[in-house]
Amino acid sequence: MDDRAKRIAGWVALIVALALVPLTGSYATSLASEVLVFAIFAMSLDLIIGYTGLLSFGHAAFFGVSAYTMVILGVHLGWSGWIGFAAGIAVSAALAAAIGFFSIRVSGIPFLMLTMAFAQLLMSVSIKWRSVTGGTDGLSGFKRPTLFGWSLDDRALQFYVIAVGFLLVLWFLRRLIASPLGSIFIGIRENEQRMRAAGYPVQRFKLVSFTIAGALAGVGGGLYAMLNAYVSSDILHWSLSGDAIIMVILGGAGTVIGPAIGAAMFLLIKNVVSSRTDYWLLWVGVIFIACVMFLPQGVWGWVRARLKARKPS
Amino acid sequence: MSLLRIVSLQKAFGSLVVTKNVNLSVAAGERHALIGPNGAGKTSLVHQIAGQLAPTSGQIFLRDVDVTAETPEARCQLGIGRTFQKNNLFRALSMRENVRLALQAKRGGWFQCLRATASDRALLAEADEVLAQVRLVDGRDRPVSSLSYGEQRQLEIALALASKPAVLLLDEPTSGMSHAETDSMIALVASLPKELGVLMIEHDMNVVFSLAHTITVLYYGEVLASGPPAAIRENDAVRKVYLGMAH
Predict the structure, then answer these.
(1) Which of A171-175, B190-194, B219-223 has the highest mean pLDDT?
(2) ipTM for this model
(3) A178 contacts B50? CB cut-off 8 A
(4) How many domains does chain B have?
């Protein structure tokens, strides 16, 4: 098979697999929906971490703000979830542009701290601004939108909408990474000084990367709101940003699909282990440490390296 | 008319003056060598010309346009290309992708995000031409990290040439090279486009005297002497501090 045939076969297999998920029952379908939502979130973060080389620790901000925007518009103003979804993505993108504008002025640990501080700031807002956000109780009462007359309250339909979102984000990221714009991000990751010496306004492109990643996290956040019909300040907490970093590293930073695999691993461990013991995070930690020690490129990075080594070039 | 002109350039780190009232110019087609003992401030000077380091005072003109306040990326776009003393490449990327990226910087189309770079055959062909220009012909899909040191030095020059500079700054192109590699580097520099102005830091006197039209000697940040090779060879002060000492 040539590369093109392989690629098409891969997409077809993925689509078929996703199409069959609702047959597995409602618990598994909900879990799969959650996995795909967080897969989008982790893949979007990887654009910053794995492809542009900036360690952001505040990515939950964009995920959370999009979900809040959608739920707030729905609950307080009665706006359709679809309009709220679009608005949420737009707000996330704008917010990423604003936070990025300040954060990219520094790099390394200061960048990490700044992005985290901005996200925490938003979390404080979500807690204090009770009349709008519901404070620590969160905001419930969101009515899921309908699609061609069918309500998204249906688990299977929810899943399909989320799966379409996931496939679109996956498709877009793959295209982006192979494109001129993506090559600039990778160049910045590889050697920022050389990129500048070659004539690229590096700061501008860091901001572009950060903003695209924010918008894509917004897609994830919106789908999260569709899934749960509820939002609370937990999704702005720094620990969610940390979870996303773990997903990226587990699956493989600098690969498009890797973080999605990482998200699946993380959530499966969480669901399977937490039903047996309260110390599920301990097991996440153990697996994470083992992964960093023995598979530093992540699970998918490791698989990909094996595939490459086998292919004579 | 000189292409590159440096006027009263001064750079100090506290009380340490690394560039002291340096005046220098490079004309189109000129091969200008910058020599001097270790710590003479050669690389600092190149950093200031290319923008990696801001001078304390003085000015840098490219075609009579003052570029002193410009960023490195802007200077590159205006026509100042450079190589680095220590290989400074995109290590995980292939040889061809390194050059393609540098070519793309000059060509634009930066925001295309759905078209594959692999489908841009014209740009890839151009990358191959640049690689051929620096005599890198084989294994262009290999990652930089798998190239020999000498090949990486050649790629350094390819990256600088890909930004189509008017002035090319070469920071020790032959550093760390074997005799054979040095000879081929001399041939490579000699084969560069005639209209290019070249300012080259070099320690190897063989390289300097076989290529340079003009030699400037730096000593503790100051220009000790500047002129054609024959005059520099005869200059007593230069012989005393530099030529006689190391060679």
Answers:
(1) A171-175
(2) 0.90
(3) no
(4) 2
A197 contacts B114? CB cut-off 8 A: no
Domain that holds residue A189: 25-310
pLDDT per residue as tens digits for the range A3-12:
889 889 999 9
Q: How far is A184 from chain B (nearest CA, A)?
A: 7
Give this prediction's pTM: 0.92
Q: What is the mean pLDDT of residues B26-40?
A: 91
- B41: its two tokens: 């401030």
CATH number of the domain where residue A242 is located: 1.10.3470
Report pLDDT for A26.
85
How does DSSP assign chain B, residue by residue? Answer: -EEEEEEEEEEEETTEEEEEEEEEEEETT-EEEEE-STTSSHHHHHHHHHTSS--SEEEEEETTEE-TT--HHHHHHHTEEE--SS----TTSBHHHHHHHHHHHHH--TT--SS-GGG-HHHHHHHHHHHHHTT--S-TTSBGGGS-HHHHHHHHHHHHHHT--SEEEEE-TTTT--HHHHHHHHHHHHTS-TT-EEEEE---HHHHHHH-SEEEEEETTEEEEEE-HHHHHH-HHHIIIIIHHH-
| Residue A1 domain-assigned (yes or no) | no
B76: which chain A residues are within 8 Å (Cβ-Cβ)?
196-199
- When CB atoms are compared, the residue of A187, A199, A201 closest to B90 is A187
Q: Does position A81 have pLDDT exceeding 90, yes or no?
A: no
Residue B109 domain boundaries: 89-159
Report pLDDT digits (tens) over A250-267: 999 999 999 999 999 999
pLDDT at B247: 45
Contact of B56 with chain A, judged by CB distance below 8 Å, is answered with no
Residue B214 C-alpha, separation from nearest chain A C-alpha, in angstroms: 26
Reported as a pLDDT band with limits 50, 70 and 90, residue A312 is low
Query: Do B75 and B178 reside in the same domain of the chain?
Result: yes
CB contact under 8 A, B113 and A184: no
